[in-house]
């Protein structure tokens, strides 16, 4: 069985400040990990994914995430956020569309 | 534009009514998926279709049926709607060699009174 815990339900952040969204997972098998972003009234968009190889994964819009097997974490980071990064972010584990999603982290960027 | 199209975008039903949510993709993807999104719970997989002619249950299939009409279309049917099925429903597809949905529809917001 696989599961995902997103440790923060909401993260307020000022424009141009860094942000980190925390995600911990549990799985009895090798994992594929993903971060998605959802803007209001839209579907999810894939930000980045970890399948294998380098533990530092770079995605779109300046986001990156680091896979840490010993801590079973896959935290998402961005060094400098923009107003347009205001959205909900979901961590997910699994493959072939059979994904377990976290409950989401709402990021609110203010000037 | 290529992508996943869902209809309708909004719907209000009374308990016991039936309806079908439509999903179509024009990217020639083999696999298609239906999820529901509830507040504080992320997305949960209802049903999926790995290829034309096949369908399988996901995590929360009770109260739903699906049809993979052809390679493009994958519909979700509520035979007798219940208030617990009030949710936002998303359709997604995966290209042949992919391991995760890249493309989601914009969702159908369904309220059952």
What does this structure look like?
The complex is a heterodimer of chains A (about 110) and B (about 110). Helices cover about 0% and strands about 55% of the residues of chain A. With about 110 residues, chain A is mostly beta strands. In chain A, the strands form three sheets. In chain A, strands 2, 5, 6, 10, 11 and 12 form a six-stranded mixed β-sheet that branches. In chain A, a hairpin with a 5-residue loop joins β7 (about 55-60) and β8. Chain B has strands at about 5, 10-15, 20-25, 30-40, 40-50, 55, 65-70, 75-80, 85-95, 105, 110. In chain B, the strands form two sheets. In chain B, strands 2, 4, 5, 6, 9, 10 and 11 form a seven-stranded mixed β-sheet that branches. A four-stranded antiparallel β-sheet of chain B has the order 1-3-8-7, with no helix packed on it. In chain B, β7 and β8 (about 75-80) form a beta hairpin. The termini of chain B are far apart. The model of chain B has no long low-confidence stretch (mean pLDDT about 90). The interface between A and B is medium-sized, with 24 and 24 residues.
- H/E topology pattern of chain A: EEEEEEEEEEEE
In terms of per-residue confidence, which ranges of chain B show pLDDT below 50 for 5 or more consecutive residues? Answer: none
Residues in helix, % of chain B: under 10%
State the helix count of chain A. Answer: 0
Strand content of chain A: over 45%
Principal-axes geometry of chain B comes out as globular
Q: In angstroms, what is the radius of gyration of chain A?
A: 13 Å
- The helix-strand sequence of chain B is EEEEEEEEEEE
Helicity range of the residues of chain A? Answer: under 10%
The number of E-state strands of chain B comes to 11
Count the DSSP helices of chain B.
0
């Amino acid at each position: 069985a696989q599961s995902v815990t997103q440790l923060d339900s909401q993260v307020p952040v000022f424009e141009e400040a860094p942000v980190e969204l925390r995600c911990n997972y549990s799985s009895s098998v090798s994992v594929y990990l993903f971060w998605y972003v959802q803007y209001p009234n839209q579907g999810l968009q894939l930000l980045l994914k970890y399948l294998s190889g380098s533990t530092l994964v770079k995605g779109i819009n300046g986001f990156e995430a680091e896979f840490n097997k010993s801590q079973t974490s896959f935290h998402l980071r961005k060094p400098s956020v923009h107003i347009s990064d205001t959205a909900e972010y979901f961590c997910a584990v699994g493959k072939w569309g059979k994904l377990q999603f976290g409950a989401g982290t709402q990021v609110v960027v203010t000037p | 534009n290529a992508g996943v199209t869902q209809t309708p975008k909004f719907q209000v039903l009374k308990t016991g009514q039936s309806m079908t949510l439509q999903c179509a993709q024009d990217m020639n993807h083999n696999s298609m998926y239906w999820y529901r999104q509830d507040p504080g719970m992320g997305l949960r997989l209802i049903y999926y279709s790995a290829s034309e002619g096949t369908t399988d249950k996901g995590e929360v299939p009770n109260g739903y049926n699906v049809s993979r009409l052809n390679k493009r279309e994958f519909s979700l049917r509520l035979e007798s709607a219940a208030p617990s099925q009030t949710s936002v429903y998303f359709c997604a597809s995966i290209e042949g060699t992919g391991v995760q949905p890249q493309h989601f529809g914009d969702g159908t917001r369904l309220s059952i009174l």
